[in-house]
Amino acid sequence: MKKVLIINGPNLNLLGRREPGIYGSQTMDMALEECGKLAEIDYFQSNHEGELIDKLHEIGFTSEYAGIVLNAGAYTHTSLALADAIAAIELPVVEVHISNVHSREEIRHRSMISGVCRGVIAGFGLDSYRLGVEALIRG
Ligand code: DQA
């Protein structure tokens, strides 16, 4: 069975402590445990745009992964470079968000990356990651 890579962008290293009213009090370790019941998971987090792009390049042409579940955090709304990287690679990318970005400030309604992703999951708390993994392993 193929693996799934989960990538978290900026500030998502603070899950469990960061704005719990929006992002909940669960930690990423808990979400990874749930995802691990569905597939073998590799996990990468960075607060740096270029490191996220480097990871997409590194993994994006390999065959051991079914795809990538990406929560790009605020770079979702700003990064054409991230969108270009997703468009460039071969592996499918599922865009996920913990919060329902469409019920929040208008600036969060726009995603630079949705159009080059396989699909989008938002608003299900940390369960969004599990749903993303499920989407990828079902093809
Ligand atoms: C987020 C939503 C983004 O707007 C925000 O910048 C984040 C987290 C989410 O998972 O809900 O950092 O991607």
Structure description:
The chain has five helices and five strands, in the order E-H-H-E-H-E-H-E-E-H. The longest helix has 11 residues. Helix 2 packs parallel to helix 5 and helix 3 runs parallel beside helix 4. The chain has 139 residues and is of the alpha/beta class. Strands 2-1-3-4-5 form a five-stranded parallel sheet, with helices on both faces. The mean pLDDT is 97. 1,3,4-trihydroxy-5-OXO-cyclohexanecarboxylic acid binds next to loops.
Summarize the structure.
With 139 residues, this protein is an alpha/beta fold.
The H/E string reads EHHEHEHEEH
How many extended strands?
A: 5
Radius of gyration: 14 Å
Q: What characterizes the major β-sheet?
A: 5 strands, parallel
Low-confidence stretches: none
Strand order of the largest sheet: 2-1-3-4-5
Can you count the helices?
5
Question: Considering DSSP H and I runs of 4 or more, what fraction of the residues is helical?
Answer: 25-40%
Structural category: alpha/beta
What is the CA-CA span between the terminal residues?
A: 12 Å
What ligand molecules are bound, each kind once?
1,3,4-trihydroxy-5-OXO-cyclohexanecarboxylic acid
Quaternary status of these chains?
A: single chain
Shape: globular
Strand residue percentage: 15-25%
Give the averaged pLDDT, no decimals: 97
